[in-house]
Amino acid sequence: MTTNYGEHAARIKEAHDRKLQRIRDRFTRKEITAELRDTLISRNTVDTRNQLTELRQAEQAERTNRRQTLERRLFAPNSSDGNDPATRAAAFRQARAEAAKFDEEGAIVAELRKAMRADDKLMAKALFERAHDVAQATDGKGLSRVIVAYLNEVEPHKTDDYRELQSMIGDEKSLSGRFAREATYLMPTPTEVDRYQDHRLPQLAADPRFADVQ
User: Fold this and answer.
1) How confident is the model over 121-128, as a mean pLDDT?
2) Residues 6 or more apart from 145 whose CB is under 8 A from it?
3) Cα distance between residue 164 and residue 105, in whole Å
4) Band of residue 164 on the pLDDT scale cut at 50, 70, 90
5) What is the pLDDT of residues 23-61, one digit of tens each?
6) What's this model's pTM, rounded to 2 decimal places?
7) What does the alpha-carbon distance between residue 135 and residue 165 come to, in Å, rounded to a whole number?
8) How far is it, in rounded angstroms, from Cα 177 to Cα 139?
9) 3-class secondary-structure state, position 147
10) CB 187 within 8 A of CB 48
11) In which element (H, E) is residue 134 found?
């Protein structure tokens, strides 16, 4: 990921907290009423949540794009698999159909060895992709011999890409990882307005009587 979304979210929350404290100080000094205080706090909270939502969407978009890029690099045929794109695509579809017949690690390893001996790069890639898909469907159990053999002997330069993809998949599957990501973008309701339901905060924030008050 090129952006540290956690740090960005933390800065947004810190800006919220500083503004919240200024509003509280103004109320303590009796510069604003409780009603105006609640409007300003609601506005601050709503604005912050909107920023965090946009940031979360940006992270998800970057994560999705990065995963798709890695999957294309790892599993899509390229010029080294044949010069003519149309012929290459048709041959790879056929190789995928053949690879889809195998589910067991031993069978896929045997077919991979055959493909490697025949220098059939498309079939080897299709078996590598099949091993990856089956491993994901079985929570990563088995198929490691196929993946290791392919990366070691056919495309060793893609090992780092595969490790990154596996790390992303593991992070997405991890319950604690998902909770941690969600917590990054949560903005608690300040105590002054927690008596209101969340859907009421935008209404308070948009109170036309205080539209020009900062």
Assistant:
1) 94
2) 105, 109
3) 23
4) very high
5) 999 999 999 999 999 999 999 999 999 999 999 999 999
6) 0.80
7) 13
8) 16
9) helix
10) yes
11) helix 121-137
Q: Which of 69, 52, 73, 68 is nearest to 8 (CA)?
A: 52
> Range with the lowest mean pLDDT among 8-22, 41-55, 184-198?
184-198
Structure tokens at 179: 């909770």
Contacts of 99 (CB under 8 A, 6+ apart): 108, 111, 123, 126, 127, 129, 130
The pair of structure tokens assigned to 175 is 């319950």
Tokens for 178? Answer: 């998902």
CB of 160 closer than 8 Å to CB of 168: no
Residues 56-70, mean pLDDT to the nearest whole number: 95
**Would the CA dihedral through 139, 143, 145, 147 be positive or negative?**
negative
> Residue 131 and residue 140: Cα distance in Å, rounded?
10
* Cβ atoms of 88 and 77 closer than 8 Å: yes
Torsion sign across C-alpha atoms 118, 119, 125, 128: positive
CA atoms in the 13 A half-sphere facing the CB of 67: 13
Helical H segments across 76-120, by residue range: 85-99, 105-117
Convert 107-141 to b/e letters by CB count within 10 Å (16 or more is b).
ebbebbeebbeeebbbbbbbbbbbbbebbeeeeee
